[in-house]
Amino acid sequence: MAIQELPIQVANQIAAGEVVERPASVVKELVENAIDAEASEISIIIKEAGLRSIQVIDNGKGIPADQVNLAFKRHATSKIFTSNDLFRIRSLGFRGEALPSIASVSEVTMNTSDGDSSTEIYLKDGEIVDQKASALRRGTSVLVENLFYNTPARLKYLKALSTELSHITDIINREALGHPDIQFRYVHDGKTLLTTNGKGRVNEVLAAIYGFRQAKDMVAIENDNLDFRVSGYVSMPTLTRASKSYLSLFVNGRYIKNYKLNQAIIKGYGSKLMVGRYPIAVIYIELDPQLIDVNVHPTKQEVRISKEDLLYDMIRDAIMAALQPVQRIPDVFEDE
Ligand code: ADP
Ligand code: MG
After folding, report:
1. Are 182 and 56 in contact (CB under 8 A)?
2. Rounded CA gap, 38 and 120, in Å?
3. How far, in Å, CA of 131 to CA of 111, rounded?
4. Interface predicted TM-score (ipTM) of this complex, two decimals
5. Which of ligand 1's atoms lies nearest the C-alpha of 60?
6. How far is the CA of 244 from the centre of ligand 1 (A)?
7. 217-327 has which CATH code?
8. Does domain 8-195 have CATH number 3.30.565.10?
9. Closest atom of ligand 1 to CA, residue 80
10. 138-149 pLDDT, tens per residue?
């Protein structure tokens, strides 16, 4: 066969193979778009673990009607423009891949308004089928239906609905923890699974996710130097879990996975943890975007951090200090 450029739908489906692994990946991308749009309220409405539908509604800045088609074009983004921008990324998205990828493996209906113009667009197989004026207050709603209907291999690879749902819940919990200033509402098949109040208090988000009693057993941590600011909450050594999946790390608001920094958390407990038990921790790292490379993997959960060894020490030391007996946090739940 002669070499030829791939049709755009095929190229998008290939990208989707990396970005849209499962329903939870769609949730992550849509929620992160809402966060980038500076929403203060985000609703996530899921049906049948995302296989029937995923809808994310935000009150963010919306997209002007005449740009909506661009949002579904590959490598089209409002978040970066020059290659220098790649070294100072503050937004969660920047690759301009999520919407075209999602649209190539599902049916998408987007309603969006920037306050001046409102539009509804419907895509199937990644192509715009219909676009018309609509009525919506400022914000965006993205409805994704029949995910993977045209990629049977991917559909077959999915796990039980309960497993897919737990991946969705996991990602929403982390986004809510990463953004305590945003009000989240998460509904599955008519049942509300999480609401957060958006008041910016991490311990209240922790209570909403892990329960009031657990949240009370967590202590605040803090550590600063010229390069990093570390803050967050970690559980008392008596409050543990059987897996490391209750460790959450955020860099400038982005949830990341990092084996080494997870080890720093555990090290902070010294010999206080029983074998096979892990704490609950939510750690926020603020740094100059120049110190981090997020352009490592399409899902952007894997990042490279300069001076990671220094950060490791800071996290470990912050936890060690916080677990000194005198450092229990005051009861902040009294007024709720
Ligand atoms: P990226 O987030 O990497 O820019 P996406 O494909 O996720 O790429 O989105 C493309 C563009 O569509 C974004 O850059 C943004 O301008 C716009 N967009 C997507 N979702 C929203 C939203 N919920 N609110 C406002 N604008 C959005
Ligand atoms: Mg995006």
Report:
1. no
2. 21
3. 10
4. 0.99
5. 24
6. 32
7. 3.30.230.10
8. yes
9. 4
10. 999 999 999 999
